[in-house]
Structures are given as structure tokens and as C-alpha cells.
Amino acid sequence: MAELKQRTLDEVKALSRDEAVEIMRQAGIVGAGGGGFPTYFKWKNPQPNLIVNCTESEPGYWGDKVVHKEYFDEFLELFDAMKSIFGVERVIMGVHFKDEEWFSRYKEHANGLYDVSLVPDKYSMGEEKTLIKNIFNEDKEKWVPRRVEMPDGSKRPGLPLDAGHIVNNSETLLNIYNALFHGKPVTTKFLNVFGPDLELKMFDAPLGASATELIKLAGLDVEANAGKYSVIDGGPYLNEMGIESLGEGDAYVRRTTNGFLVIPKGVASKEYADIKTKQPEEIISLAGKVSGVNLPLGGRFLKPATPLISEGDEVSFGQKIGEPVDNGFSIGVWSSMDGTVSSLEDDIVVIGGGEDFKQAAKAETEAEAAR
Fold it and tell me: Theoretical Cys-Cys bridge with 27: which of 185, 201, 264, 320, CB 3.0 to 4.6 Å?
């Protein structure tokens, strides 16, 4: 039963907890909005409250709002299913006050299926413990404890599960929906590409796609601006250096990449804490439109999956290329494009589409962006 395939709502509700957890593991789902913790492991120990973190706090980001607008019905089906499978008693959506209008449709159609909780318009709301504290501001028993004493007398930091909560962000939950209902693994990532000199584009980009290629598709002439910009993987507050000097080296779309912020080289990212961006007109799908990908078999918390392919193999979009191992945290890995495996070293699978593919994909994507 624990296989990735198309299912109706009733069929999803009929899944056992173990089956649903294994589907998440095989589909390659990790926390899409933070540190990338494997989602399946959280749901091995279900809790009464599912908290949906909709507080996309990085300045300039649009992902949460656009995703909930585009996939409203899918979220409703998922909330219904999670209550049946995992015994979730409450689904609580944490939403910034400033974004209340974006989520008004949820408030109008709650019908006891979920609650919408408005929280302050602060960056810190993206942190799980802070979000929980603000949702349950008058019920301190539901706050995450600072420390939890272990059976051996040692202490560890408190976790949401210690207070009866599981926190998932919006895209993570949409990935769960796609896996349970459509048998669809994680092969792409929603992300914002933007900067003070670059109008925001929201892409649904293949995992492992080149940051430089995405920036070109977003409209910046990389060659003419070589050495002038840095590329930040993240937003103005929480981020890592992606490309220190644009045009020299590259970065790639990771499972946790929510944005590529393009800023003048040598300027601190927090200088752009007040950056304003326009609502994207659409989510631009780049599936089948990038020239190559670099896919990790593991990750921050993850033991590398066992490769199912070899150098020189032809692979197709959505083909399984990594089988999760049984020791430690590990997830299934799936190809994010059609192409040839050109390298398999250091637990990174490099897939390229060939020169003809590159030129055709570039022309098609540039034409679509121009429209």
C-alpha cells in the first residue's frame, strides 16, 4: 500500500499512519521552509495539533500567499485527510496580520476543519517556538518547554511535540498532498528570485537547477554584470552565501531554497530588510526548461540515499534515482529533469540535457518570461 500512486480522498483517508509516513519518506519530503528536517520523522509521532506555518517572514517573499491562493482546495482536502490518518484534532494556520486578506477565504470556509490564528508582523514568527507562543498566547501550557528532562537525568531543548504540536510550513504540506493524492515525489521547489535591481519572479524550479541560470531567466544579464553582484540563498535575514561574485562559481536550488536574493557585491544582506517587491503575476514552471541539475543524494540531516543509476545513464523527469537507506534519516531522491547522468561523485548526481536541449529550453523559457 505504501507506494506513490494516484488516490482519491477516501483512499488517502484509508491509509494507515505507517503507510502515510513511508510515502512521505519515499517521496523525498523535508521541511521546505527551514532547516530541511525530514518530514516523515515528525509524523512518526503524531500530535493533536497541526500548526501550518504561513508566516513567510523574509522581506520580499510571496510564496506562502501565492501557494495558498493557487492550491486552496488541495489544502482543504489535505487537512481533512490528516485528521483521519493521524488523529489530528486541530489544524491551526498561523498567519501574519498584514496577510489576513490573503487568507480570508480560509476564514470563510473553516467549517470546523481548521482555525486561522493571526500573529504579529514580525520576522521571528517563522521560528516554530515563537509562532506557537503567539498562537497560544494565553495558554502557557501549550508553549514549548525550554528544557525537557530525559530518563537518564540529562536535559534537551524542548520541541513542539513536547507541547502536543507538529509544525509544517505551507510548501511542505503541499508536497505531502502531492505525494498522498497524486503519487508525486518532490522534484521541484517554489522560490523567489529578486533583488534591488531585479524584479521578482516566482519560479517552480527543478531541484538542483543552477542559480546563475535562474537569474538569467529572471532577466539579469549575468555576463554584463559579472563580478558586480553576490547571490544570497535565502532572504535579507536568514541566508547563506550562494555565489560570492556572480559569474564566478555557482549555487544550486536545494530542498530548502526559498529565494535567491541578488545584491551588490560587498553589501550586507540586512541592508535590504526593507526591500519591496511586486506580487508575481504567476508561478513560472521551469520543469523541462533548465540545462542541467546537481542533485544531492543526502543533505544536512540526511544519510545519502543509495544511487539507482550510474554515470552515462539516461534518466527521465520523476524517475527514482536514489533509494533511502534504513539507518539514520534518509529519503527517496527523484530526477528533476530528462537527461544524461554526467557525473556521480561525492553523493551528487549531475544530470545534463545536452547542447540542443539547452538552447531549446533557454529560448522557450525566455519567450514565456517575455509574455
Answer: 185
Which residues are bridge partners to 141 per DSSP? none
What Å distances lie between residue 285 and 46, 173, 187, 351, 365, CA to CA? 33, 19, 12, 19, 9
Same domain? For 108 and 88 the reply is yes
Compute the distance between CA of residue 3 and CA of residue 359 in angstroms, rounded to an integer.
36
Domain end call among 264, 288, 312: 288
Say what the pLDDT of residue 183 is. Answer: 98
Q: What is the tally of structural domains in the chain?
A: 3
- Average confidence score pLDDT of the chain: 93
Question: What residues are paired with 170 via a beta bridge?
Answer: none
Q: Between these two residues, 108 and 355, which has the higher pLDDT value?
A: 108
The number of residues in the chain equals 371
Picking from 252, 44, 67, the residue whose alpha carbon sits closest to that of residue 175 is 67
Cβ neighbours around 149 below 10 Å, total:
10
- Confidence band for 1, pLDDT divided at 50, 70 and 90: low
Question: Which positions ≥6 away from 366 have C-beta within 8 Å?
Answer: 217
Is 106 exposed, middle or buried, given 0-12, 13-18 or 19+ CB atoms closer than 10 A?
Answer: buried
| Model pLDDT for residues 184-194, shown as the tens digit of each residue | 999 999 999 99
